[in-house]
Write a structure and sequence with these properties.
Largest sheet: none
Distance between the termini: 20 Å
Number of domains: 1
Helix content: over 70%
Shape: globular
Length: 248
Amino acid sequence: MSTSHAMVMLRRNFTHITRNPTSVFNAVLMPIVIMLMFVYMFGDAFSVGVDYIDYATPGLMLLAVCYGLGATATAVNSDMTKGIINRFKVMHVSRGAVLTGHVVATVLTNLVAIAALIAVAFLLGFDPSASLLDWLGVLGIIVLLGFAAAWLTVALGLAAKSVETAGLAAVPLVMLPFFSSAIVPADKMGPGLREFAEYQPFTPIIETLRGLLNSTPSTTDTIIAVAWCTAIALVGYLWARATFNKRA
């Protein structure tokens, strides 16, 4: 029963996304706009040892995951504050299905956004040397990251007091990739910022994607990336369930 409820919630969330042009733009088109901006406007200014499109694409893939999170936070909060959850309770809809529907919709939206981003990257000259196994590794990391970010965003949306503050709650997740190795190598940053970039969670995830796409994966980066994603997912899930049970 809970599986069928989750599918209904998933269809509901996708319907809402497709009817909201702002959500579609932020989730799918905005990462492409940023890619075009950095590659064409700033790419020649960065010395990264390879073609800039090859360097930047892994970081922009992570950015594509983050840019769709604001819509998830506001949608979750809207469900909570506008009485939709109480209506679902009367209909005996599984509580877990409500949250799971948001998470799965977010992950699938991320995959669509990243597929579009990679297609544009190839048009711009992206030339990865990844094997099929490496690409499967990239997919696995992206799904794990999307799953973790989605649960954390659902928790942030549930904890926010209003729809407006829910949207703002996801802003740090959108900004964090810019203070990582997504755009430029961390060792080219100034003191303080360099150390922050090296030790924040997104940098090992980006370096794992970069290594897989270059067919030179780092075991250390991969272990750290998986550990960060797992920890974020666990914190987000436990926080979301506790807040949902408290407020619903």
